[in-house]
Amino acid sequence: MIVSVYPSTLTGNIHAPASKSSMQRACAAALVRKGVSIIHNPGISNDDKAALSIIKEMGCNWEMKEGDLIIDSSNAFVHTIASLPASIAINCGESGLSIRMFSPIVSVSSAAVTINGQGSLATRPMDFFDEVLPQLDVTITSNNGKLPLQVKGPLQPRNITIDGSLSSQFLTGLLMAYAASNADAVSISVNNLKSKPYVDLTLKVMSDFGLNVPANKNYEQFVFSKNKRSMPEKIEYTVEGDWSGAAFLLVAGAVAGNIVVKGLDIQSTQADKAVLKALIDSGASISISDAAIEIGTASLKAFHFNATDCPDLFPPLVALASYCEGTTVIEGVSRLAHKESNRGLTLQDEFGKMGVEIILQDDLMMIKGGKGLKGAKVHSRHDHRIAMACAVAALKAEGETVIEEAEAINKSYPNFYEHITSLGARVNQL
Predict the structure, then answer these.
(1) Which CATH class is domain 20-223?
(2) In what order do the strands lie in the sheet with 377-379?
(3) In degrees, to the nearest 5, what angle opens at C-alpha 199 toward C-alphas 23 and 239?
(4) How far is residue 128's CA from residue 136's CA, in Å, rounded to a whole number?
(5) pTM across the whole model
């Protein structure tokens, strides 16, 4: 799909999309617990659909009813050996969270499970599981550290030490798997853990679903003890608004108009809530309350931001920095290599086409902003956040911006173009 975006002025109210980080974790927790889970405000992104597909293949029954997602995991294969198939195949689509979270969870079952994915996921390294799962009595084979994976449990919780420098998503999967395996008197030690706020989200979701939540020892050790909580037969959970997707809306407001974004939890543990700090530091006109965030244009200035724990903010913050007077510095470039694209290089290339100079130096990205952007033909690189960043940047560029492979947004925010159009953006989809 090709999308053209023209210079626009935004105004109006918009509701943030559902968080896929919250939604996918909720699907995993619903699988792990035994019983019925009612999920309000469920997500509709491709990553969310991948999670639903996985739990269905693992024996969960689910249905959408009056806007709610109802999941019954009573006969899921992580709970029973009755009618256990000889082998199971799951597909994680292009979701990095799904592959990293569900691989340990499905290993709780004694069935042989083949795990596959699509697009850029097929090239991402999965050596972590080759090294860790055998320590937990899981047999695993991979394609030289890449997909497809084949795992066969049942996983046996033990004291282990893992590397958390690549992604916290691996830890999320192990925490869920240990809870599913009734872990007791064992711990997971972690070296150099990144994206700690996402671990907080995982622990909160586990608690909300009545799972056994380990003691968090300064993000260096997670200690499981016998679960003394009784698990209710039915729970209800509401998926949070998505700070990752809303970051693009908020930046769009700062660049191109005065808008109100609703549906975001100011107390959320989502890492990308940190976008508020960047917006404040840039001088954007912003008013924050529990009910809504009002944001509008102002004289924007360069800022310094550490995105090590929230690397998904790089794309929207590059769009913001492009309109800030001076050179913005963002730390954490090393976290960008294994995304849907190598985002550091991709942002440099695609924004370069629009006249923005980006310098990559060690772990720093420097964006020289405030010089004006020109419309150009850009490419999403099949990366949802690159497509959205280019669209936001195009709102005050000179002339038309054409985004190729613009459907990449379906991975996380399928309604993005419709949402910015409702705010007054001039968008043409072909």
Answers:
(1) alpha beta
(2) 377-379, 401-404, 3-6, 426-429
(3) 20
(4) 13
(5) 0.92
Q: Determine how β-strand 10-15 pairs with β-strand 221-224.
A: unpaired
**Residue the block writes with tokens 């976290």:** 335
Q: So what CATH class is 3-17+241-429?
A: alpha beta
**Owner of token pair 């947004």:** 409
Q: Which residue has the tokens 């953006």?
A: 425
DSSP 192-219: S---HHHHHHHHHHHHHTT--PPEEETT
Residues facing residue 116 across a β-bridge = 91
Every domain of the chain and the residues it spans: 3-17+241-429, 20-223
Angle value at C-alpha 207, between 64 and 171, nearest 5 degrees: 95
Integer Cα distance of 309 and 224 in angstroms: 25
φ, ψ at 279 (rounded to 5°): -65, -40
Tell me if 154 sits within 8 A of 181, measured CB to CB. Answer: yes
**Angle of helix 169-180 relative to helix 20-32, nearest 10 degrees?**
20
Angle between helices 20-32 and 196-208 (to 10 degrees): 40
Tokens 């917006």 label which residue?
A: 279
pLDDT per residue, tens digit, the chain (430 aa), is 999 999 999 999 999 999 999 999 999 999 999 999 999 999 999 999 999 999 999 999 999 999 999 999 999 988 876 567 878 999 999 999 999 999 999 999 998 999 999 988 888 888 889 999 999 999 999 988 889 999 999 999 999 999 998 889 999 999 999 999 999 999 999 999 988 999 999 999 999 999 999 999 999 999 999 877 777 789 999 999 999 999 999 999 999 999 999 999 999 999 999 999 999 999 999 999 999 999 999 999 999 999 999 999 999 999 999 999 999 999 999 888 766 668 999 999 999 999 999 999 999 999 999 999 999 999 999 999 999 999 999 999 999 999 999 999 999 999 999 999 999 999 999 8
Residue 199 has, within 13 A of its CA and on its CB side, a CA count of 23
Topology alike, domains 3-17+241-429 and 20-223: yes
Helix (H, G, I), strand (E, B), or coil: what is residue 341?
coil
Q: Phi first, then psi: what are they for 340, rounded to 5°?
A: -60, -30
Phi, psi angle pair for 134, to nearest 5°: -60, -25
Catalytic residue numbers, as ranges: 312
Please say whether the beta carbons of 334 and 350 come within 8 A.
no
The single-letter code of the amino acid at 39 is: I
What are the structure tokens assigned to 177, written together? 């798997």
